[in-house]
């Protein structure tokens, strides 16, 4: 993947959707900077940028719920990333839920 195609915002970040590659479930939305994207491509495991802690965040380092990369796409504008992943364990959300999108509004 050519990182130069990605349009990072004014804070140097790009939103990333993590999707289960087997069943298509959207598991979470997070952010990456150039370094976390490069590490993700090298390791083939998801590495995000924690906006609250201001550090790289290798998903699963503390929880064990690693996200193995199967495919990565960027959108037509280059300002969003879709990562199709294989989750280790069945939890992507810090609340213990499989997906961060478990609260229904309508």
TrEMBL record:
Obligatory cofactor(s): Zn(2+); Mg(2+)
UniProt: Mg(2+) binding residues: 75, 77, 79
Any matching Pfam family: PRA-CH
Cellular component GO terms, alphabetical: cytoplasm
Pathway membership, UniProt: Amino-acid biosynthesis; L-histidine biosynthesis; L-histidine from 5-phospho-alpha-D-ribose 1-diphosphate: step 3/9; Amino-acid biosynthesis; L-histidine biosynthesis; L-histidine from 5-phospho-alpha-D-ribose 1-diphosphate: step 2/9
EC number annotated for this UniProt entry: 3.5.4.19
Residue intervals of the Phosphoribosyl-AMP cyclohydrolase domain: 28-102
GO BP annotations, alphabetical order: L-histidine biosynthetic process
Positions bound to Zn(2+): 76, 93, 100
Keyword Manganese: no
Keywords of the record: Amino-acid biosynthesis, Cytoplasm, Histidine biosynthesis, Hydrolase, Magnesium, Metal-binding, Zinc
GO molecular function, one term: phosphoribosyl-ATP diphosphatase activity
Catalytic activity: 1-(5-phospho-beta-D-ribosyl)-5'-AMP + H2O = 1-(5-phospho-beta-D-ribosyl)-5-[(5-phospho-beta-D-ribosylamino)methylideneamino]imidazole-4-carboxamide; 1-(5-phospho-beta-D-ribosyl)-ATP + H2O = 1-(5-phospho-beta-D-ribosyl)-5'-AMP + diphosphate + H(+)
Record bears the keyword Aminoacyl-tRNA synthetase: no
Cofactor annotation remark: Binds 1 zinc ion per subunit. Binds 1 Mg(2+) ion per subunit.
HAMAP family the UniProt entry points to: HisI
Family from the record: In the C-terminal section; belongs to the PRA-PH family. Belongs to the PRA-CH family.
Quaternary data: Homodimer.
Full protein name: Phosphoribosyl-AMP cyclohydrolase
Lineage: Bacteria, Bacillati, Saganbacteria
Name of the encoding gene: hisI
